Amino acid sequence: MSTSTPTRPRPAGPHSPAGAGAAARGPRSGRPWLLMAPALVVLLLMTVFPAVYLLRASFRDENLLGGRTDWVGLENYAFVLTDPVARQSLLTTLAFVAVSVALQVGLGMLLAMPLAARTRANTVGTLLLLVPFAITPAVSGLVFRELLNPNYGWVNHYLGIGTEWLAQPVTAWVALVGLEVWAWTPFVVLILIAGRQAVPSEPLEAAALDGAGRWQTFRHVVLPQLMPFLAIAVVLRTIQAFKTFDSFKILTNGGPGEATEIVNLGIHRVALQSFRIGAASAAAILLLIVLSLLVPAMLRVIGRYARPEEA
Q1: Alpha-carbon distance 198 to 116, whole Å?
Q2: Total structural domains within the chain
Q3: What is residue 200's predicted lDDT score, i.e. its pLDDT?
Q4: What pLDDT was estimated at residue 11?
Q5: Does residue 41 lie in a domain region?
Q6: Helices marked H in the chain
Q7: Nearest-CA neighbor of 105 among 236, 194, 292?
């Protein structure tokens, strides 16, 4: 009976896997930070530094024209919260976001269901939906303004009317919401098409065998599967709708009167017309707080629908 001599573990050399890992963790440990440095510099310059300046300016009597700046504490926030025009612009913004997002989601659902079938015609239709993404919001606003021109605009010409769309509050809101719906409904459609195509065929076949109609199949089979995609679309569109500025500035500039004055227009007006950077910064910080409270709540809704078994 022979006895085998136990082998002693060999020390990890530089060419062994363990040695190579140690060498990679040694002198090369700073390489990831070096590779990320350009992106981190851009992030600091474009987001962190402006945010710090915005927060600092909101507590000071900053003026765009220069001069002495004094620490005023919460006076800028008190001015924004007590100003009736600022409160009205916030309510106007909330109404615009609610109406435009609801219309986009509703129309997006109506368009996504027939376009979800994998056919050549639907492929062409889906490609056409990308057209609004190729047009910047400012250009879209300029085109809509010419289409709604009461003298030579196509809208009045083909409808046979002489309405001054942007001179009346109701029609101005119709134009603004219509532009927003035209520009962003395709975004919702593409998300919902992806969700509809991800629905497995087995539940649909089982519903057909049970004699369920189209509406019953959609309500009890398709819609629950679409809820995570629908929630994502609502959250993304809500955030983007709060940032809307171009179309309001170009079409109405807050008019007629103050009927279409939203928060972003008010911030622009206070900062670049009244030159009160401190008050404008306070308004921007308050808007950021509103979004910071709204988005996590909506994300919790997404989590609930994405994991229905935990609800």
Answers
A1: 10
A2: 1
A3: 85
A4: 53
A5: no
A6: 17-25, 31-43, 49-57, 75-82, 84-115, 120-128, 137-147, 154-159, 169-197, 201-209, 214-217, 223-242, 246-251, 263-272, 277-306
A7: 236
Token code pair at residue 264: 């972003």
> Per the domain annotation, does 19 fall within a domain?
no
60 forms beta bridges with 71
Burial class (CB in 10 A: 0-12, 13-18, 19+), 247: buried
58 falls within a domain? no
276 forms beta bridges with 63
Give how far Cα 68 sits from Cα of 60, 61, 189, Å. 10, 8, 52
- This prediction has a pTM of 0.80
CATH number at residue 266: 1.10.3720.10
Residue 32, in any domain of the structure: no
Give the amino acid at 300: R
Closest CA relative to residue 283, chosen from 52, 92, 86, 95 = 86
- Joined together, the tokens standing for residue 257 give 């009167």
pLDDT along the chain (311 residues), means of 10: 52 51 54 86 85 88 75 88 88 93 93 86 83 85 91 88 89 94 92 88 83 83 87 89 92 89 90 86 90 82 59 39
Full DSSP string of 5-70:
PPPPPPPP-TTSHHHHHHHHHTTTTTHHHHHHHHHHHHHIIIIIHHHHHHHHHTTBT-BTT-S---
Write the DSSP assignment of 63-80 as a string of letters: BTT-S---B-TTHHHHHH
Length, in residues, of the chain = 311
Domain that includes residue 210, residue range: 75-310
Note the pLDDT of residue 1: 47
Question: What region does 100 belong to: left with phi over 0, alpha with psi -120 to 50, or beta?
Answer: alpha
Q: Is 264 exposed, middle or buried (0-12, 13-18, 19+ CB in 10 A)?
A: buried
DSSP 274: S
